[in-house]
Design a protein that fits this description.
3-stranded parallel beta sheet; alpha/beta; globular; 14 helices
Amino acid sequence: MRIGIIAHLKYPIAEPFAGGLEMHTHLLARALRDRGHAVTVFASSHSERELGLEAICAETAIGEVGTAEARDVAFFREHHAYLSLMNDLRHRDFDVIHNNSLHYLPVTLADLLPMPMVTTLHTPPFCWLESGIRLCSGKNHALVAVSQSVARQWEHVSKPDEVILNGIDLQKFAFHAEPDPEEYLVWYGRIVPEKGLHFAIEAARLIGMPLRIAGPILDQEYYRTHIAPQLGVDAVHVGHLDHIDLARLVGGARAFLCTPMWDEPYGLVVAEALACGVPVAAFARGAIPEILDSTCGVLAIPDDAVSLAEAGRAAVTLNRSDCRHRAELACDARRMVDGYEALYRRRIDMPRQESDLPSVLAIARAMESSQLHA
């Protein structure tokens, strides 16, 4: 198949990944190419070229200007990149388009494409994406949720056509039958308030085991005020690691502390820890209870460090082979890619629907105008 993948533009689709969405896009594109499909990834300029990159803009995370100005510049850079891309795709020879972005324009303009489009819902509803999906009614468009939790959250807007659980490359997160001799717990992910790292630091101290922390600092104020003052010999930030070093760090841990302060849409970090054979203690939020069972993880009361510490103490006693088995059963990327391949083929085989191009473009221009006058 000739597959076009529309990526999120805020960060490059390249290692070290800024987050789970970037890793998911990279994994999907690479796996599809390995299966013999012709894949083009529409992403920001510093993304990995071996994925079949066609750069449509520079990254929209702008560090050189003031926050208020960056918000406007980033919006218009993204808006025009996606608007130009969707107009261009009307004349391209793809069998299917996979929209893996979080932007409203691809879904708003899906009806104008001559080929089917699949949109993956990676987050709970938010105003811009929700408005775009409400305006998309084409039979050529399919919505996929990454978990049952996400599917339920979107039902009031538009019921997803399918649920395809995310997956990871189990080879990149190899099984560690034994933890490192030096005991430690691990937390990793984007260092932002909604990921709740401060709860993990507190819980690790209650457990009495050192915590090693990995991930990019994407909210400097949160890091400066809530994290940096808590760091020391028993809580160390080791930086933003590539896959090899991250898998080594995670695999050596006694347990992974997962602390989302929002309804986690899936939880790739949970799947990665299990693949390494590392038990998980996690706040019971979003899709995490769909991944964990009693053999591999212990759920805690959300936003409660004491409850997380209790879960952590129980988690370190779980069997590491059972954790790996759970990852193989529920989190294998091959299952995920199988699901998307089958969906692509079903959509390609459906009769094409003619779009009302003038009205669709009018919607896009109206949305742009509303921002200009906001």
